[in-house]
Amino acid sequence: MPVLDRFLSSAELGRRWGAEEPPLCPAVSLAAWSWELPEIVRVVRLLWKSKGALQGTRPREQLEPEPAPGDGPGDARLRSPTGVLSERRGSYPFIDFRLLNNTTHSGEIGTKRKVKRLLSFQRYFHASRLLRGIIPQASLHLLDEDYLGQARHMLSKVGMWNFDIFLFDRLTNGNSLVTLLCHLFNTHGLIHHFQLDMVKLHRFLVMVQEDYHSQNPYHNAVHAADVTQAMHCYLKEPKLANFLTPLDIMLGLVAAAAHDVDHPGVNQPFLIKTKHHLANLYQNVSVLENHHWRSTVGMLRESRLLAHLPKEMTQDIEQQLGSLILATDINRQNEFLSRLKAHLDNQNLSLEDAGHRHFMLQIALKCADICNPCRIWDLSKLWSERVCEEFYRQGDLERKFELEISPLCNQQKDTIPSIQIGFMTYIAEPLFDEWARFTGDTRLSENMLSHLRKNKAIWRDLHHKQRTQSNDHLNEGTEKKDDQTLKEGGAP
Ligand SMILES: [Zn+2]
């Protein structure tokens, strides 16, 4: 049945058109029906509203709540209580005004004006793009052949460490994640091996890409694409590659692509202190990582990408994805680092063992997630600026709502060089030292460590210059003050 006829015969149209409209008959030719402009406008509006149905997908409001893997409760999608457009219950920052009313220092925060402002903030952040009336962009490439040709050329060098993901994102019209994953699934032979349906794969990847928040300076789909590209490089390391199964590779790539999906742009302590529903749901433990995992499982099930595989296999995939994504929780850094050190000291890693392979996939994903300091300076600097911008935005929110400003989030105190030097020294360097030990100091590992040390030296230089400048500024201020005091004849 042609799309428009199918649409015309839908109950939606019948319900909305009302009794005063001409009777509907699917057999009536549309061409023979002369419509006035207002009617055409109404049909176009209804067509947009029925977009989900026209695309052959189940409308979101009909979806059952996702049963979560394991014993925990699910948070992927909820049935709309109103029966109209349902909202994907995501991770937009949410401030519980009861918390603010209860704070001792709140003073006049409970006034009507404050609460009204808070509610409008809450409404703005909590509303999904759909509820705000923004139609998701189609993932079609609208660029000319030159751009696509250049993107294709870049893909031929996707295994190079100096791959510029920002340029690739521009060349693919903001579709770097979908384009990269389709390419990698193909080159790793995963589509053939798992007999994947290309339409379902594309649908899944578009869902993942769309669920990243493009307004986040750092935790957006380009970061996911960057992590996936790094993961691809690590999966090619001979020490690992010689043992990996197609399932390991698929898990590694999907986990990298979805490891931060629906990230709200604020960290776990912020979600806890503002009593966000996700903090409550996951009882303040790996709140974001649990949400990224459960969201990924929800999208995998909704896309039916793996529906043709045996149930035990899909359950295993969902669990392994969880274990990989949960490993990216930075609070668990020491746990993973000491386990890796112990394995390397005792030389007891045996990658024929599925458990050990899974552990090294976790480590590879952790490395990919924090590999920004190991990129060439131009790319590394851009990532550093973006992540600090996201921290500062959180600090601004905390200041606005009179909450304690989180560490690293105070733009006046925490400079980009100081944040980067600390991150490189205490988090990145120890992990990449051990990774290099595992790979047997390959060219890639040495290259990464060399960039890391060079970048750290540049940040140190900048840090030193900034301190000298601010000291000069302070001294200037003191000298001026002294001059003024002397002129006024007062004591210094
Ligand atoms: Zn990440």
TrEMBL record:
Domain PDEase, residue spans: 143-466
GO BP annotations, alphabetical order: signal transduction
Family label: Belongs to the cyclic nucleotide phosphodiesterase family. PDE7 subfamily.
EC code(s) of this entry: 3.1.4.-
Residue ranges, annotated region (Disordered): 57-82, 468-492
Residue ranges with Basic and acidic residues bias: 473-486
Pfam families membership: PDEase_I
Catalytic site positions: 219
Gene Ontology terms for molecular function: 3',5'-cyclic-AMP phosphodiesterase activity; metal ion binding
Pathway in which the depicted protein is active: Purine metabolism; 3',5'-cyclic AMP degradation; AMP from 3',5'-cyclic AMP: step 1/1
Residues given in the record as Zn(2+) 2 binding sites: 260
Cofactor(s) demanded: a divalent metal cation
Residues noted as binding AMP in the record, renumbered to the chain: 219-223, 260, 369, 420
Keywords: cAMP, Hydrolase, Metal-binding
Annotated residues for binding of Zn(2+) 1: 223, 259-260, 369
Taxonomic source organism: Pleurodeles waltl (Iberian ribbed newt)
Keyword Hydrolase appears in the UniProt entry: yes
Lineage top rank: taxon: Eukaryota
Catalytic activity: 3',5'-cyclic AMP + H2O = AMP + H(+)
Protein name (database record): Phosphodiesterase
Note describing how the cofactor binds: Binds 2 divalent metal cations per subunit. Site 1 may preferentially bind zinc ions, while site 2 has a preference for magnesium and/or manganese ions.
Top class in the EC scheme: hydrolase
SUPFAM superfamilies per UniProt: HD-domain/PDEase-like (SSF109604)
